[in-house]
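Lecture 7 notes: from sequence to structure.
We start with the chain below.
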Amino acid sequence: MIFIGDLKPYCLQLDTSRAMQYKRLLEQADRYKQMELPLEHPKESTTYMGIAIANLALAYRLSGSEQYLQDAKRFMNTVLSYEKWGNAHLVNVDLSASWILFGLSLGYDWLKPYLSEEEKQRIFCKIRHHAKVMFDYRRDTYGSGWSTNFYQNHNWINMTGLAAAGYAMQGQAEEADTYIKGAKEDFARVFDLMAEDGSNYEGVTYWRYGGMWLFVYAHLLKVQEGIDYFQSSPYLKNTFYYRLYQCNGDFTRQMNYGDCHDRYSSHPVCVYYKVAAEYRNGHAQKLGNMVVKEFLAQEAANSKVKPGILPEAIFEFLWYDPSVEEREFDDLPLARYFEDLGLLALRSSWQRDARVFSIKCGAPGGAKQWREGWKILQDEGIDLFSLSHHHPDNLSYIFASGGEYFTCEDGYNRNLMPDNHNVLLVDGRYTDAQDVNDVYMTSVEQRQKEEGKDFSPESYGGFVSCVKVEGNLAVYRGETAGVYPRHMQMQEVSRVLVTDGLGFWLFADIFNSQKSHIYSVICNTDPLPCPQEKGYRYPMETGDIRYQVFSSAPTETRQYEQQVVSVMTTQEQDKLCRTCIHTLSTDSQTPQTSQVFFECFTFAGSEAKVCCQQGMLHLEWNGNVYKLTVGEYDAGVGRSPVRLQVTRDGAETAEYSL
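Predicted structure tokens for the same chain:
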């Protein structure tokens, strides 16, 4: 059986070690019985129809229940009756078509013994027709669009659908091997290009939606041909930890960088189980079981990403390995750095009430994509960049405590504005372009028009100049001056983070330019800030946060609300993602060439004492003293020297040059 191989070993575990996954599969199959299917293709995504066919076909093969066979045929007949697959945008050649092509191909293969000759012929002809349409589109557009967006979810999903069709038609249609070969060549490039550390520039929501299909294809290829990307791909091996370290404190939701329809769309249990099975990874097994037993209904009810977590039952059943024992997270470090994105993730503990913090700064799409993408464009003329899901968020940070969020990201956004993230602004700007979907690449296009052949991709974007983690002490410094419009003549825009076990955190935000500007530090949050005599207080159920800003030049503050409203998919224009952001902006009172802001976040009841004198931020907390000093800008290295002194319980002082 395609995608499965021998079904017998699974059948032997239905009442024992695979009982929980089998129950999930049948519950999902039962949901389809009451689902009404439109006679005409609806004005919405139909991805759910493809995965429904696969769920029902597997449920029938395992249980023998005639109801599941009839429901599988009902879904099959529905998609067979539609002349086109998809609505509004890239009809027949994008996600709805590929999900259906995948599910119909598996259903056709698995149910062949139970279909009439007429039924088999109708299904085969439909698969053959749509596979050809998909293949022809890819061939005709090769070099642009999803055909060569090797880092983008549309490429992965569409090519997996085409591959499944090829395997389903193998031996019956001469073009089947062409589709299989095309997918193998495509994914050979994809897996070679993915970041070795497992990070994903599109953020956790698209990691769980599109990134799941990297596992689907790798599994398909392993079963069909014995080619094993699970052993050869560092990305597949490491990417679970990218996801784990982007969990919020209580693990229910995620640190929502990039286009995130909501904070709940985050848990593909099937991927956790596959990681557990392929790498004997007990941490992945633990998280998978945790989600199934505790979070499944919560995510299904709140996630805006469709088809969603419930229809993934088929993959959960097939990928679960009962022999892998759970492993507690406590044996993992509380900090992990993902170099490709410049992403530092921190936790105060692995308990459900943990404080969690992330900060990032890097090249658009990640360092490897930025480097390899420009090389491929130069050598082959292939434009693989599609960065609309990567928000302009260098030096932005996210903080959550337990299940409560302090900072607020903009969610799914097609019209990105500079102050949508907790970034550093110059005259209210961050990138060349704004109020567009793909901010980075639109900005690059503007920069190329201005500079011509002088444009240097290496000078655009950001990078991390320092990461130090010693025990609970974490220090991080990111630089992103190259992103700001050239006419601003920014020499330095950097942020230094200092925290000790997330008992507090400090920023030194450093601006240097050849021209005078108004500089701004943005604090976007879920709770409303309450003014105090010194700074602001943010009421939090998990402990109020006190926010103070000190500056080398006079400042003023602005407080306002942002409403971000965006259409999540062009197939469903009436479905919107809405995010409310409470913004506090601290701005220069008058234009400056250079300015340093110290931002200090402390917690109610922690008795932290903070002051700033002669350019030094002084903080006392938990018997320790922290002194942060910023020196004069050094043109030779392109940044200002920063020194941190830490004295613990009156003992010898440790010094760090950043």
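Points to note: Residues 117-140 form the longest helix (24 residues). The mean pLDDT is 96.
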